[in-house]
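agent> fetching stored inputs for the flavin mononucleotide docking request
agent> found them:
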Amino acid sequence: MVVGISGASGIIYGIRTLEHLRRVGIETHLVMSRAAEMTLLYETDLKPKDVRALADHHHAMPNVGASISSGSFRTMGMIVVPCSVRTMSEIASGITASLMSRAADVVLKERRRLVLAVRETPLHSGHLRTMAQLSDMGAIIAPIVPAFYSRPKTLDDIIDHTVGRLLDLFDLDIGVVKRWKSERGTEANGAVETISVEQAIAMAGDPGVVFVDVREGFERENGTIKGSIHSSHGYLEFHADLASPMQMPELASGKKLVLFCGSGDQSAIVAKTLKDMGIDNVAHLAGGFGAWQKGGGPTEGQ
Ligand SMILES: Cc1cc2nc3c(=O)[nH]c(=O)nc-3n(C[C@H](O)[C@H](O)[C@H](O)COP(=O)(O)O)c2cc1C
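agent> prediction call returned; pasting tokens
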């Protein structure tokens, strides 16, 4: 993953992103602006070389010939965290004068994921228009805004939760987000069979088991469980209904259906819906595709 760190306040979010990506084994390519180096000195006791050491590869801002400036260099996308208004505006303009904006532009043109963790407040309508323009271009504008439903006790809790939510946007569950569970999700979890990731991986390739990916198409960009079928949660009811013209034969095959989503909440709700329809051979995967990837289960479609 490409990690851009620009000169907005909150340099710690960029540092923590690098630390977590290293911990979960994601290769990082860092590009840090001069202003980011300045904010680093204001906001921490670290030196730029300490931050660079957290990345697998780092590239100098003027080096528009670096690997990440080419679309042929495959990445899972780019996050700019924190993202200054200046960097955001340069990316929106398409003036790719630095490696930061060039790498971001490449991610957009290759239709990969670009997450901009913008940090500025208050915002004038020029900022807001630029954000809307970038969103139209395919970027995700994810301002750094702390959540309090997770009852944070320390600043670290807030930083980790925010970074976790940003990396969720790449379908990466780094295990630090305290997830909100709806009453529906909790109730569903108790009502359907839950399969651990170890059990599920042991079932891979079993002809009596069908893995069903209930995520939306855009959530599947980082791949899926090898051999699984796809029926997004909005359609599964119709695909499972014997009376529906949209019925999918695999869902009526009598095989054990193991539903999975990104993190295990949505699949519990959908599995409960199928159970309520009289389909008993249904279970769901705890932790979803994130846990499957982390557990080393076979995947396809990346
Ligand atoms: C301590 C400090 C904090 C700053 N905080 C912000 C901020 O939160 N948001 C922002 O857009 N710019 C902020 N700036 C201004 C940017 O650093 C400045 O616009 C710079 O030109 C951004 O360059 P860059 O996008 O190449 O990193 C801050 C500057 C300093 C020195």
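agent> quick read of the result: The domain at 2-168 is CATH 3.40.50.1950 (Rossmann fold).
agent> awaiting further instructions
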